[in-house]
Prior knowledge:
The chain is α/β, with parallel strands linked by helices. 33% of the residues lie in helices and 24% in strands.
Amino acid sequence: MVIVAPEDKFISWSENGETCSARWHSEGGTPPPKRVVVADDRITADAAYRLACEGTALLWRGDFQNARQLLQAMARRLDRKPRKATATTAAAAEAFHLYRQSQSQRARTLGMLLLPFDDDYRVPLRRAPDVSQACVEAYGAAAGPLVASLRELLGLIGAHEWRKKGVEIPALGERIHPHYGVFAPVRGEYVDLVAAAPLPAGCAQAFDIGTGTGVLAAVLAQRGIAHVVATDQDPRALACATENIERLGLAAQVEVVAADMFPPGRASLVVCNPPWVPARAGSPLERAVYDPDSRMLTGFIRGLAAHLEPGGEGWLVLSDLAEHLGLRSRTELLAAFDAAGLRVVGRMDAKPTHPRATDATDPLHAARAAELTSLWRLGAR
């Protein structure tokens, strides 16, 4: 017997003259579609795209690989729409909001192609791969049949491969294995900054606030800091960081603890790499990128001085992308430091090397091309 939690939601559809239902699952928090039709290999891409745009979901009963091809065809139809690139800084904030609206609409439309899952996470379709391990890693133990979007499943499969192969971190000379829902350290410039910045004199203890995969805590431990406390409040991040620290043989130096921001006490070094863009997270999976109202950034700045040992430093690793998008000014950031009783000891900058920084077709190209990632070295006044 499956025990259904009160928060479980259900999706209903008509099939073979009967009304059917199943548990609905969406990691992004998308509500179950209100209109659902059964579809298979006979449907055309144009018809599927039209239904999805109208808000009608398609529960797939055909070949799994054909469903993947259909999703790609729907994506191509979305991409035919002209992309508006805005080059001026004054209009950058508007461009950003239009871009997010477009991405949200894209996710909603492509999320309308649905798959059934049996009670062991098996997809009962022709040529369907075994996705049970990817589902267990993301969803936890199976709890009965469900319906989820193909787009989400492909994300799970991709995350499973990242977790198996890991991400090469040159600063560590090792790989970090991100879990589903935990931000992968694919942008190496912020890791390199933490690996290169001069440590405070006599630094024996450090805090890594919002550790995620644990990559920065591992870098600090590898640099010789005897005790690193890595905090996070996301259960997935805590499990991911713990696994990575153990795999790297650093468990004797790094303590992973559940905490909202700071652990008790003080340290010679307190490091934080908060989400860089002050905007509302559209789903739980976006919380590593978007920091609504700069809550984590502000919380770190305001609480830092009280958690620094005399002569200690706080390292804030932050991109200035939000400044180029008109979402936060440098003046506001510096004023926040001053209001919290902090002084800037130094700053190190790095240019991003990811492909979007040089993609002239990206709607946010002007901002991305000008972006710098900085490590702000902060001390108490």
